[in-house]
Amino acid sequence: MAGSNEALPGLCFLGLLLCLCSYSAAAASTPDLLYLNLLWPGGYCHSVNLGEDCCIPTTGEPAADFLVQSLETYDSSSGNPITNCNSHCRFLINPLVDLIEDMFAYWPNLSCPSNNGMDQWRYVWCTYGNCTSLSEVVYFNRTLLLREQANISATLNSYGIVPDASITYSLEKIVKALESTLGSSSFAVECKRRYTVWPLLYDDYLTGIRVCVSSDATTFVSCPTVLPTNCGNNVKFAPILYASSGGRQRDPTANPLRLPSAMDMLL
């Protein structure tokens, strides 16, 4: 009995240590920073095999604007992404019925083959959204509101930066325009490089904007570290063209949106 009693303090200390370690690990895995990734379909489609691998979704039609790719979860102190927090994650389309038209317009999947976007929404929710403290509806709704609040296209246009196949803009001018609405240290401009003669002649196409966002997905914030850009000094802002439309710019109002069928809702 004496030996058992002597072991108790050691066991208690070990248990306390394990609890503290578990608490520290849980605290470290709590996301306190979000990254909003916005896609410019003009640059994206031009940079992936000149649009041949860029497809119009099967349901609805993307808006002629910057589109949502994802809202990612990060630990600002380590800079590491926090993902897949629930191995039993479920994505339910039914609660998003009031958002579905905006989802089709502003959060489509342009990859080929053509699809209705729902696999992408499921992936983003279970990879990132489930790691936030937000419900599924709030996560998607606030992300769409952040895209609207960023107002990237209108901001660039107000500075004379408009989509054009031949004009090249300075990265400095693009950054200055975005600083007027996003702040000076809250975003990075992202490009894809397309070579005409490797490795000497190339064009950098604006493909997206990456913005730092508060953990509750309500406001833009200063990034804890400077986000690097992969753009050169000069950038092309390509018009939105899709191979499936014969090289013509698509009119986002040309085809009415089709709401999901009853079968679609059974996801």
Please specify the SSE layout and strand pairing.
Elements: H1 2-28, E1 33-39, H2 41-47, E2 67-75, E3 80-81, H3 100-106, H4 118-127, H5 136-150, H6 152-158, E4 168-170, H7 171-182, E5 187-197, E6 201-213, E7 234-236
Antiparallel strand pairs: 1-2, 1-6, 2-3, 4-7, 5-6
Helix pairs in contact: 6-7
Q: Would you give an account of this structure?
A:
The chain is an alpha+beta fold. The protein has one domain (33-245): Alpha-Beta Complex (Ribonuclease Rh, Chain A). The protein has helices at 2-28, 41-47, 100-106, 118-127, 136-150, 152-158, 171-182; strands spanning 33-39, 67-75, 80-81, 168-170, 187-197, 201-213, 234-236. The strands form 2 sheets. Strands 3-2-1-6-5 form a 5-stranded antiparallel sheet. β2 (67-75) and β3 form a beta hairpin. α6 (152-158) packs across α7. It is globular, with a radius of gyration of 23 Å. The model is unreliable at 6-28 and 244-267 (pLDDT under 50). Residues 1-27 form the signal peptide. Belongs to the RNase T2 family. One of its GO terms (biological process) is RNA catabolic process. Keywords: Signal.
